[in-house]
Amino acid sequence: MIQPRPPATLVLGPLLYHWPMADQRDFYFRMADEAPVDVVCVGEVVCPKRSPLFRDYLPKVIERLERANKSVIYSTPGLIRDGQELEDLRGLISDTSLLVEANDMAAVSLLAGQPFTTGPFLNVYNEDTARVLGRQGAVRLCPPAEVDGEGLATMAAAGHADIEIQAFGRTPLALSSRCYTARMNGLTRASCQYACGADRDGFDADTVDGRSMLCVSGPVVLSHGFINLIGMVDQIRQRGIHSFRLHPQSVDMVDVAARFREALDGTLAPDEALAQMTETTPFGAPPFIDGYYRGNPGISPIPN
Amino acid sequence: MCPAGTPAALTAAIEAGADTVYLGFRDATNARNFPGLNFSRDEFSAGVTGAHKAGRKIYVAINTYPKAGDPGPWRRAVDDAAVLGADAIIVADVGLLEYAAKTYPDLRRHLSVQASASNAESIGFFQREFGVQRVVLPRVLTVNEVRDLTRDISVETEVFAFGGMCVMAEGRCQLSSYITGRSPNLDGVCSPADAVRYEPRGDRMACTLGGYTLDVVAKDEPAGYPTLCKGRFQAKGSASYLFEEPTSLDAMALLPDLANAGVTAIKIEGRQRGRAYVSRVVSAFRAALDGANSNVDPANLDDVSEGMRGTSGAYRKVWQ
């Protein structure tokens, strides 16, 4: 007997860049109205200094998303230093009624005993860790990008929590207490003047001989290339992974989500979906990468 | 807390005045999984006996993240550390900590820097769930923050004072696997040596990793080891050491402050370094610690630093 597959879940991850606040609001409004995603993560995970700026818009954004039947998740920061950052996290978790995404073990500790999810900044590498987190209340885990498809499948098969895969966009690779955007501008984190606001999706860091490699958003370093696993969604689902994270980028995310939805629903062949995204702007600019999923260097482009 | 990558380095560390030596087994279970480095079980057993005879302690780093579906090697490392007499194990993975806590409740568990626990709540989680008795703090806190944190928690703190310095939060960095397919968390290596090339380019020298150029220097200029975090990048029209210069950590001048901050242990990095490095650095720190309250003139260790230059990194707020 063929087991029916659980439905596929499309998750819009938190924004990893510092877009103007009105742009962020409009972005989420449009995702609420038009994007066929199931889950939308709001909240600042990259830099605590950015967090307060969007706070005024947040209630309206959440309301609009919920009215559109999206589940809304409050994502929390990837690095929590002791002191004010920890206090802010405590306040956030006690005040919100939303499901919370933990990106530091401090959030896991504060959320223990209630349902929560984990994001790619939290170190989840194996099924034993998944079991411990599941026991704490984790319902869905999105491991770091460097865990390959086989590792994700192993964790999914263990069944302690649902497994989510980073399926589209630049993946975060590292984070620091130093702000590199500030450093680039001759400033420090304390005196940053929100220099990151000048970069739409972070700024590119190429090798000195001109090859694309990294992208920088404040204290977080990301891949320059966009992960794109749309061509492999069937294989991924056969491996027991049914949640797909799309990282927001300054491309038409409604269109991205629609193609993933069609590929997942079987109305668009996955390889055709990939071909369309490769050939048509605005997706064509950075090379698509899928190395991590295949167990290769993460920077490896999708093979022809 | 001093490093040893070989039995010779272990002896050197003890002779130079280390209170505790930390080391790893010869496999992917520890974060310095380099060819020709680390301890066989027999070497480890002999090392423990020797250290205990000298009144010193041995900690075992089992601080990579077990590969999904293959926890065996990591559990065996915990088993052997316990059976062969380690004084503590240094662990990062939540699943492995649970195994250790259940199987060997009496074996001291320290939280590795690779667990990236930088606040009281996170550290409290590891203490509550797995009985962790010490935390090695990631290099993301200022000295004042280390002091406040140490005051607020009831587990011991340990901080790095010298050696190779991660610019990124330790345990939260995939830059190496992005280019080479191998990472500190999964494989115990950062920028594996077999992926590194130094090649002449005109009258200059290029340092490459996995075929990607990370720096180009004049031939008489010392070439740093090519890690991404200390590479030179082209951004916004200019080339620079975007993340950090090719420097390493030297917090000797901050020892009195760290002592006042209440930290239990001062850690020297460098299990991949030779016995000469270990002797030199451990002796200097022993002398500095013994005179920590007497304003001794700190020894200059620049010549044994990677990049020949030291920084106090995140311990000072201006670095951030």
Instruction: Name the CATH architecture of the largest domain in chain B.
Output: Alpha-Beta Barrel
Main sheet of chain B, how many strands, which sense, barrel? Answer: 10 strands, mixed
Number of strands of chain A: 14
End-to-end separation of chain A in angstroms reads: 36 Å
Unreliable stretches of chain A, pLDDT < 50, 5 or more residues? none
Report the order of strands and helices of chain B.
Answer: EHEHEHEHEHEHEHHEEEEEEHEHE
For this structure, what is the CATH homologous superfamily of chain A?
Aldolase class I
Oligomeric state of the chains present here: heterodimer
> How many separate structural domains of chain B?
2
Number of strands of chain B: 15
The backbone outline of chain B, from C-alpha atoms, is globular
Instruction: Give the fraction of residues assigned to helices of chain A.
Output: 25-40%
Poorly predicted regions of chain B:
none
Order of helices and strands of chain A: EHEHEHEHEHEHEEHEEEEHEHHEH
Structural class determined from secondary elements of chain B: alpha/beta
Mean pLDDT of chain B: 93
CATH class of chain A: Alpha Beta
Major sheet summary line of chain A? 8 strands, parallel, barrel
Task: Briefly say what this structure is.
The complex is a heterodimer of chains A (304) and B (320). Chain A is built from 11 helices and 14 strands.
Keyword list:
heterodimer; A: 304 residues; alpha/beta; TIM Barrel; eight-stranded parallel beta barrel; four-stranded antiparallel beta sheet; 14 strands; 20% strand; globular; B: 320 residues; 2 domains; ten-stranded mixed beta sheet; three-stranded antiparallel beta sheet; 15 strands; 31% helix
